[in-house]
Specification:
The complex is a heterodimer. Chain A has a single domain, classed as P-loop containing nucleotide triphosphate hydrolases (Rossmann fold, 3-Layer(aba) Sandwich). Chain A is about 35% helix and about 25% strand. Chain A has 10 helices and 10 strands. Chain A has helices at about 45-50, 80-90, 105-115, 120-130, 135, 150-160, 180-195, 205-210, 240-245, 250-255, and strands at about 5-15, 20-30, 35-40, 60-70, 75, 90, 170, 200, 215-225, 230-240. Chain A has a 10-stranded mixed sheet, sandwiched between helices. In chain A, strand 1 and strand 2 (about 20-30) form a beta hairpin. Chain A is globular, with a radius of gyration of 18 Å. Chain B has 2 domains: about 1-60; about 80-319, MetI-like (MetI-like fold, Orthogonal Bundle). Chain B has a two-stranded antiparallel sheet with strand order 1-2. Chain B is mainly α. Chain B has helices at about 1-60, 65-70, 80-115, 115-130, 135-160, 175-200, 205-210, 215-245, 250-255, 270-280, 285-319; strands spanning about 70-75, 80. The radius of gyration of chain B is 27 Å and the shape is flat. Classes of the chains: A alpha/beta, B mainly alpha. Chains A and B meet through helix 2, helix 3 and helix 6 of A and helix 7 and helix 8 of B.
Chain lengths: ~260, ~325
């Protein structure tokens, strides 16, 4: 714990249209680690993830209170432009979502809007290599991204994200729409990426979380007395080994051993 | 025994026949819808054949000058429809020039920018504009828009920019320009509402992808929304153009009804649909045939526009 945390979350509350979605989350995220966010459906995993690059801002009625410090700066402070945050905190989504453009233009898109002045071909190659896709597409850079397989599309989305040269990559169930072979490629890739990037991944898949992550956060759904309102809380956040072998909280243990969820 | 078996058999048969009535519904449905579909084709074919047949004498006597001559003198038996064709195309182009950016702007505003509660009502109001009868647009154009808005603008254009041939004066209120502006207002609702549907269909995933890469709203629209919607937008514009080409009453009221070809859009002109509406009542003989001929040419132009739109959209979807 000698390093400065990449992210520090304090008293984070999120609500959508007055309905609480996430309550009182606090955690520190060290740089160049893979952090898995796990928990049952509807416990606010994606909501938490979307707080790190202010994607929740795009949802009408979303309200976020508390602090998310990114390299010591509160990204929810009044004078912070979410656009600048998203340029250094990249995101990969559940479903591969390449633009209906060529492979090259997909990778170059983010760099172009950010006014990248360097050699674009070089950046495209570097990003595609970084996403372990270069060898498969190097002869077809002008082909439509939509002609790629799902797994390739997802790696293209990762290439597109790292082309902006972020320091953090958020992944929202990046392999849930992929077959096992493509999934294992993405997982291998994550191990390479963490040399340079902090990675926060939401996953439904316990084995995946255990395989890839250094630390894991377990979120759980709380229900109020009437049973009508439900929101997510952070139950436990620790080294992945500890979470999966010797969790402190009974709820974590039950979830991991498959008793619910 | 035999009798009882007979009864059982008959019961089964009756049930089958009842079921049979249900089975009959499918072929009947197929035939009825088939007839309806066929009827459309027959009516269309009949229309094309009869109008072309009526127009043949004038096509024969005038030859190509029917399309390329501007001399339209029914009393002398000269029918050159070029001025009408020109007017139809010019007024429609002016309408598109004004309507397309506006419609796209309104559609983008309603899908991407406006607060949620405003979207429904405004979209409804825009759709309502499409329900206003065209004669009302025409009258409104003549009595309200023309003196209050079109005439001053036309005068200003001719004074300030009169050295450009297309704005050469003297500015008359009834003109290609006036008709084009009212046409634009008439086709804005249809283009807007088609564009809105198309923009709404852009996958949220792609918009989020652009945002997550640090795109501003405008960069997201340019990078993710417009490329996706391009083909559909062109289709919408072509449909709007089709409407503008065929619009009759509003243009007849505003275009000035003078069969001439001028470079200046501030001069009066004529359109194909307008000349048919204006002259049909008093036409006889060859004149009737010539007006029907104008109709055939107009029909041809709209078909070409629609086919071109289809081809454009196909090409884009494929690439």
């Amino acid at each position: 714990m000698s390093q400065e945390p990449a992210f520090s979350v304090r008293d984070l509350h999120v609500s959508y249209g007055g309905q609480p979605a996430l309550k009182d989350v606090g955690m520190d995220i060290e740089p160049c680690k893979i952090i898995a966010v796990i928990g049952p459906s509807g416990c606010g995993k994606s909501t938490l993830l979307r707080c790190f690059n202010r994607m929740n801002d795009l949802i009408p009625g979303a309200k976020i209170t508390g602090e998310v410090l990114y390299n010591g700066q509160d990204i929810y402070a009044k004078d912070v432009d979410p656009v600048t945050i998203r340029r250094s905190v990249g995101m990969v989504f559940q479903r591969p979502n390449p633009f209906p453009k060529s492979i090259r233009d997909n990778v170059a898109y983010g760099a172009r809007i950010n006014g990248y002045k360097g050699n674009m071909d070089e950046l495209v190659e570097r990003s595609l290599r970084g996403a372990a896709l270069w060898d498969e597409v190097k002869d077809n850079l002008n082909k439509s991204a939509l002609s790629l397989s799902g797994g390739q599309q997802q790696r293209l989305c990762i290439a597109r994200a790292i082309a902006v040269e972020p320091d953090t990559i958020l992944m929202d169930e990046p392999a849930s729409a992929l077959d096992p072979v493509a999934t294992s490629k993405i997982e291998d890739l994550m191990q390479e990426l963490k040399e340079k990037y902090t990675i926060i991944i939401v996953t439904h898949n316990m084995q995946q979380a255990a395989r890839v992550s250094d630390k894991a956060a377990f979120l759980y759904t709380e229900v109020n007395e009437t049973g009508k309102a439900r929101w997510g809380i952070l139950v436990e956040y620790d080294d992945t080994d500890r979470i999966f072998t010797n969790p402190r909280d009974k709820r974590t243990e039950d979830y991991i051993s498959g008793r619910f969820g | 025994m035999g009798e009882r078996r007979d009864l059982v058999l008959r019961g089964g048969l009756q049930r089958l026949m009842k079921r049979g009535a249900g089975r009959l519904a499918d072929p009947v449905f197929a035939v009825v819808t088939g007839i309806a579909g066929l009827a459309v084709l027959i009516i269309l074919a009949y229309m094309v054949v009869v109008t072309t047949y009526t127009a043949v004498p004038v096509f024969r006597s005038q030859g190509w000058s029917f399309i390329f001559s501007t001399d339209w003198s029914p009393s002398e038996g000269k029918f050159g429809a070029f001025a009408f064709i020109y007017g139809t195309i010019i007024t429609s182009l002016i309408a598109l020039l004004i309507a397309v950016p506006l419609s796209l702007g309104v559609a983008l505003f309603l899908t991407e920018i406006a607060p949620r509660w405003i979207r429904g009502p405004v979209a409804y109001l825009v759709d309502l504009l499409a329900a206003v009868p065209s004669v009302v647009y025409g009258l409104w154009g003549v009595f309200v828009l023309l003196p209050g808005f079109l005439q001053p603008i036309a005068t200003w254009l001719s004074v300030k920019l009169g050295w450009i041939p297309i704005f050469a004066g003297p500015a008359t209120g009834l003109s290609f320009f006036g008709a084009g502006v009212v046409l634009a207002i008439m086709i804005i609702p249809i283009i807007t509402s088609l564009c809105r549907e198309i923009l709404k269909a852009v996958p949220v995933g792609e918009k989020n992808a652009a945002f997550a890469l640090g795109a501003t709203r405008w960069e997201m629209i340019r990078g993710a929304v417009l490329p996706r919607a391009k083909a559909g937008i062109i289709g919408a514009v072509m449909l709007g153009l089709g409407r503008a080409l065929g619009e009759t009453i509003a243009v007849a009221l505003l275009v000035g009804s003078r069969a001439q070809v001028t470079a200046s859009i501030l001069q009066p002109g004529y359109s194909m649909a307008a000349v048919i509406a204006n002259q049909f009542q008093e036409a006889t003989g060859d004149h009737v045939s010539a007006l029907v001929g104008v109709g055939v040419v107009l029909f041809g132009i709209t078909i070409i526009v629609n086919v071109a739109a289809r081809v454009l959209v196909w090409r884009m979807v494929e690439s």
